[in-house]
Amino acid sequence: MEKSLKEYLAAEPGTMDCPVRSVLDRIGDKWATLVLLVLDDVDALRFNEVHKAIGGISQKMLTVTLKTLEADGLVSRTMYPQIPPRVEYALTPRGRSLLPHIHGLVEWSKEHMREILASRAAYVA
Question: Please, what is the average pLDDT of the chain?
């Protein structure tokens, strides 16, 4: 029998018993969603191209983020044996299947950001 959302959310943190937490932990960090969006409109990008497209991310954090997304099967890494070595990153079919949901969140954010900022200001005041 399928678990209810309440049962998933009540699962022990850090376990795979809650797919919602598990996925949000991965894509909800500061950079993962931006990396997925950068890779959305291209076949593949090299590391430096991804780095340049996302302002403010360090090379180390980009490396960690790409490895995490690769481990989850959302991004593929292809290394070409040439001098100098060439490595390209691309979305996998699983990564592409996540994009409509991310785009929905982007649209919702654009639509509601003004009100959210006003609420934050009112809360602080």
Answer: 89
With respect to residue 3, please indicate whether it lies within any of the assigned structural domains. no
Q: Which residues are bridge partners to 89 per DSSP? A: 45, 77
Number of domains in the chain: 1
For residue 83, the number of C-alpha atoms closer than 13 Å in the C-beta half-sphere is: 0
23 with 16: CB under 8 angstroms? no
pLDDT in tens, 30-59: 899 999 999 998 999 999 999 999 989 999
Parent domain of 111: 31-124
- Does the CA dihedral 79-80-85-88 come out positive or negative? negative
Within a domain: 90:
yes
Q: Which residues are paired to 114 by β-bridges?
A: none
The answer to whether residues 20 and 8 touch, using CB atoms and an 8 Å cutoff, is yes
Range of weakest confidence among 11-20, 34-43, 94-103? 11-20
82: left (phi over 0), alpha (psi -120 to 50) or beta: beta
Amino acid in the structure at residue 42: V
CATH code at 67? Answer: 1.10.10.10
